[in-house]
């Protein structure tokens, strides 16, 4: 449905987006995650045709955005980071104005009523936009994006600046949108992307550093399971013995305790359980296990790892 291919953008000599590619399937809710300045807004603006790319292409439903902008844009509803509102208009007048501007070919009154109902702003219809709270303004921006029932909805950081209650409501709304639309939604908040989206693309310094289904991202980034071990004995003997266990991919001593025991982090293949092997190996060499805990990295750990610039999961795949 949305295909981004080798997209690059330079602002003068600054490379804001660096050769990124990904596709979004029909009905998918894709989270575009990255820290401030990663290139999210620049990418969103190129996908929606508001900004031309330096190179690369964006295709919406088979239609290239720069070749046939009118047709391609008619398939997109866009809520930019700063919603394009005319704040002296009432909500209804603004939506009527946008309806005409977008040349929507649906019954005007019914459609605007439906969009206001969906975004829960019916009761604000006759209020002037500048008198609304930020949360309600965001909903009006969202209502504007939904005019014409576009199959693709693109939302650039729609929850920034909202209070926790408003954030929960906007997230709920986005999840509902995913039932009928393909949604691309950018954020720098990992927890909200993992809560709302089917798939996450992580961008850092203009490059994609991960692209995976939300529940598979953990395995893709860590590349396996982790076991932490505290044991008493010779470091060389312990690491040697652990390395011999077939499912073990990596073992490292991470520190020493005051009682003389050592802390080790063991990385091993997903879907194996090495605890018994570790126990037997330690018994064989006469080392004593004081503590053993399995634990994967949290999504927060991964996000930091991915965006620190030291890791590129896609490079490792190649
Ligand atoms: N018009 C511009 N001219 C020059 N540099 C720009 C321009 N717009 C963005 N940049 C730079 O491009 C890079 C990416 O910016 P972009 O706004 O796309 O990131 P972002 O991920 O959306 O960040 P944020 O979450 O802070 O909005 C940044 O280094 C930014 O300073």
TrEMBL record:
Its EC number is 3.6.3.-. The keyword Metal-binding does not apply. Pfam families: ABC_tran. GO terms for molecular function: ATP binding; ATP hydrolysis activity. It comes from the Bacteria. Keywords: ATP-binding, Hydrolase, Nucleotide-binding, Transport. PROSITE patterns: ABC_TRANSPORTER_2. PANTHER family: ABC TRANSPORTER, ATP-BINDING PROTEIN. Belongs to the ABC transporter superfamily. This is Putative ABC transporter ATP-binding protein YxlF. It comes from Ruminococcus bromii.
